Amino acid sequence: MPELPEVEIVRRGLEGAVRGKKIKRVQLNRPNLRFAIPDNFQQILEGQVIDSLSRRGKYILVFLDDGNGFVLHLGMSGVVKIIPAGDGYQPEKHDHIVMDFEDGGCVVYHDPRRFGFVDLITRDGWAAYSSFAGMGPEPLSNAFSAEVLFEALQRKAAPIKTALLDQKVVAGLGNIYVCEALFMAGIHPIRPANKVLREEAEVLSRCIKEVLMKAIESGGSSLKDYYHTDGSLGYFQHSFAVYDRVGRVCPKCEVARREAGCVERIVQGGRSTFFCAFQQK
DNA sequence: CTCCTGTCCTGCCGGC
DNA sequence: TGCCGGCAGGACAGGA
What we know:
Helices cover 27% and strands 21% of the residues.
């Protein structure tokens, strides 16, 4: 699923492909995704040059030359296809938005489950956009420290697993990387967030950064219905320590070669949590 | 305010 | 072989 690392990979792919290019036409194949596509979406975008692309949490922000812009959230199954000029675009089912550029290339938003969405923003006003207003710090920035994390966790009685999924605590984490970070930090997912000690928050903050950085380095990760913007299969190579590995010996137990714990699956807040009870306390 | 549950959507997979 | 139920999950609405 697209979490912060996958979204960042898509952002980088898009940046290389469309920055500085002029949007010729925006074709909408349906009026809505997760939410309605704004009525003036095409009108705002067409004729504009793409000035820059950034990311906040799991959102890609695209800014245009005139100060307008839009956000793109990939939801569960959102994929951005980049078709260079001259390659010829072959439409597929679930291609919802097609953006044609003056140079002949195009970018296609493809999303079978339609949990993704787009909305209009502006360069000066994006921070006040509802999704960003209360959003927590970017985990890979200096704004995210052990102290900041500890303070946020102190205010939550919910399980640490649930707390880390809350985008107000820290931005960009989803089910996969929360499971992986908690495993790496040795913290049991059921533990109430406010019972995580200061020194554990220190370790956890470092593990969150590490798990995200490694995933970005390896080109992002994914389940079967997700692929790289350039169509390469790089995302299939990444493997996880605990996520979706029920019954396997966890990597730490494997290395220790002692009393080995197997990866277990529980449900928290309706979501699967994968962990090793032997390594996470 | 926080917490919890249900909802959206389609594809896939296991069971019968 | 085909059908059906369950599951996957990010964000949000609404109720407790």
